[in-house]
Amino acid sequence: MLEIGKLFSHKPDHPMNSVAAARKILKKLDEAKPKPTPIEALIQIEGWANSLAGADGFACDDRFLIVAEIESKGNLLAADIFPEYFRRIHTRDQDQRRLYELLHSYWSAVAAAYARCVLDHQAGESGAARFTPQLAIAAARSIRASEHAERMRQLRYIGSGAELWESPCRLFAHAEKMEVDHVSIVVHEREVHSTVRAELLRLAGMSLAALHELPPEQVELAGRILERFAVSFSWSTEPSPDCNFVLDLAEGAAPRQRRPDEAASPTKRFFGGGPALPKLEEVGDLVAKNLLADEARFGVEFSQAQIFSVIRHLLIYLGPNPPQRRFARTAVSAPVEIIHGFSSISPRLTILDAGSGATLDDNLNVQQRKRSDVQLAAEVADEVPETWTMCDRSEWGLGVEIPQRPGMWAEPGVLCGIRDGETSPWWVGIIRSVEASEFGRMHCGLWIMSKRPIATHLRVIGNETHQLANWETSSGGFKYSYLHAVLLPDGVKAHDRPVMLIERQTIWIGEIYEIMAGEHTRHVRLMELIEEGADYMRVGFAWMAPAAT
């Protein structure tokens, strides 16, 4: 039955002034001839959501129902468009940029439209009492849409604006005041239960997880993992050992690491990984053993190695002791030469192959030679180095500015060769972080993995269950596989084990390789996958005892 208050109310001056009007307009969009493309349709949907966020005169409950109609249609379109954007994730061209801008604008508009419902409720506008049962859902949807918009920015390594946290903090504070912040809700149909708090913690996890250090595929994967595990984060109004982060609702600023002497206040909320961390570790263990069920994966587009790498990253940055910069940076302005990719880097390094006469000990110390006596295949360094501008440096890191035209390939996880002068040796490093502005140059942080890298080859032997002597037949009929590797004599060890880079491929922990380096070749066993990049894998290994003769 129509309420008396609504019977005499005036409809707002807006084409979508009722649910029926909204449905009629959206139906016309579906029936238009010619039918608009998903991109064309989402442009219109984004416009309607944006107008609903700014239009006055709506009752709180009416606005919510109309925004829900718009979002229901828009989410279907966004789900069609995002895979195309993701397919082009490594292509920085105008088409990719337009897809980014559309998706970011859409999610921002949805967040603002739902936020307007909540803020009108807070101000006691018309329909506030009728809207109260939907308050938690509206707040959760707004915060989630803000997270989707922020994820789009992170996928392009564009830093968050100062305004990102203003609305989520205000919405959560009101939900908390109304005692619905922890109430179990279904944010959208056919979803698992969530809470307003869980949606805020998911956004907080995105903010704290240093996503600018991950390749773009892994940025998206991190978001999907947090969707599942943020609900298990710890939460408190008081400082506690398992709540090492703090969010001040009054400041409306990004969450940060809690100071050791941080005191409680009425507007501070403390949180941490808490129970989510052991759950993440459990999934990581299953991935490492190749036991993660298909239905538990976070999308068919992600490899086991990528899932493992992202879980390790989240455990580090959302754990009790997030990394801190260890080396002081010194300001400098100088050119630096950069190449990228395994195939371009390895020919420029000191090459050590079988029969070279050099020795290789357990610590990867060798008597280096500029050219090997034995080459398995001809190698040509065909990439012309790009010149970037170094702006700061430490012992094992560089900060660089990338000109607009070069460096279109630059993103976290890319393997680089680095040289600060024509007569200097090439170092090996990776792009550890990228920060971009909407326009102009990008800033990269480079981590130098080794200043004395050695290029060599590996011969694939097999796994632990096979005897090495049985792999090669007496007729020589067995065909070995070879791949490039880069040894890192001065690199950071993994659990006191030496580390090397190998070409990206499917590997199994425990697999055995023969290092084709030095006067006497030796066998190693892969012990740990540390991380996976675009064309390389960083692995820890152990030396094997010589086979009995």
Percent range of helical residues: 25-40%
Return the domain count. Answer: 4
Alpha carbon gap, first and last residue: 92 Å
Mean pLDDT: 86
H and E order: HHHHHHHHHHEEEEHHEHEEEEEEEEEEEE
Structural class: alpha+beta
Shape: elongated
The radius of gyration over CA amounts to 28 Å
- Report the total helices: 13
- Read across the widest sheet, the strand sequence of neighbours is 5-7-8-11-10-9
Any low-confidence stretches, pLDDT <50, length ≥5? Answer: 368-380, 465-478
Percent strand equals 15-25%
Sheet with the most strands, sense and barrel status: 6 strands, antiparallel, barrel
Number of strands: 17
Word description of this protein:
The protein is α+β, with helices and mostly antiparallel strands and 549 residues long. The chain has 4 domains: 10-181; 205-258 and 266-324, no CATH class; 330-360 and 379-450, Thrombin, subunit H, CATH 2.40.10.220; 454-543. The chain contains 13 helices and 17 strands. It has helices spanning 4-7, 19-31, 38-54, 60-87, 94-122, 128-131, 135-155, 166-177, 196-208, 216-229, 276-288, 304-317, 342-345, and strands spanning 234-236, 245-248, 256-257, 268-272, 330-340, 350-351, 386-394, 397-402, 415-419, 427-436, 442-450, 454-462, 481-487, 499-503, 512-515, 522-532, 536-543. The strands form 3 sheets. Strands 5-7-8-11-10-9 form a 6-stranded antiparallel beta barrel. The protein has a 6-stranded antiparallel beta barrel with strand order 12-13-14-17-16-15. Strands 1-4-2-3 form a 4-stranded antiparallel sheet, with no helix packed on it. A hairpin with a 7-residue loop joins β9 and β10. The longest helix is centred in the first third of the chain and has 29 residues, at 94-122.
